[in-house]
Amino acid sequence: MKRTKFIAALVAFAAAPTVSFSQLKKTIKGFKISAGEGRIHGHIKLKGVNSNVLDVKVSGSDTNGNLAIFEQTSLSQGRGTPLHIHDAQDEIFYVIEGQYYFKVGEDNYHLTNGDSIFLPHKVPHAWTQVSEKGKMMVTLQPAGKLEDFFVTMSNLDHEPTPTEIAKIFSDNGMIVVGPPLKIE
């Protein structure tokens, strides 16, 4: 009896990723996004929180809102996001190059080339770029409105105030709960 339950649990565990990815919208065919390119929007040059460049690699519109993947080229040493919460999106950051400082809940982390970090939804988090330059892959599940947030921030014609930034965060499913991190 125990062996049967163990085998059933093992099969269920092995099938779990398949079930999750099977919910993604099926596109007519696959697509390639070349290095240094962004899908749909080209390079999204941010204003406000930092002046980084985002390239959409997989859009929420590609996955029926279930997943989004971005490549971020970091050009804003000493700057990052304010402490904020995503109500519904988990985030995973993978550092391709450079150094970053993260806060997730009460814990602080230093990340460098090859490091990853998981930021669960509903947990306050922020990050700051430590190195002069850097690059990260950012994965969100579900996609939420982060792509819209990036496009809005890039279309600003001025440097937004903290009040404007908080409103833009709020309009895109995030809540600012504290200031940006200082590098420790």
Q: What is the CA-based Rg, rounded? A: 18 Å
Annotation field: number of helices: 3
Largest sheet report? 6 strands, antiparallel
- How are helices and strands ordered from N to C? HEEEEEEEEEEHHE
Instruction: Give the uncertain stretches in residue-range form.
Output: none
Assign the CATH topology: Jelly Rolls
Q: What is the CATH architecture term?
A: Sandwich
Brief overview:
With 184 residues, this protein is of the alpha+beta class.
Describe the structure in your own words.
By secondary structure, the protein is of the alpha+beta class. It has a single domain, classed as Jelly Rolls (Sandwich), CATH 2.60.120. Helix content is 22%, strand content 34%. It is built from three helices and eleven strands. The strands form three sheets. Strands 1-2-3-10-5-8 form a six-stranded antiparallel beta sheet. Strands 7-6-9 form a three-stranded antiparallel beta sheet, with no helix packed on it. The protein has a two-stranded antiparallel ribbon with strand order 4-11. The longest helix is centred in the first third of the chain and has 21 residues, at 2-22. The model has no long low-confidence stretch (mean pLDDT 85).
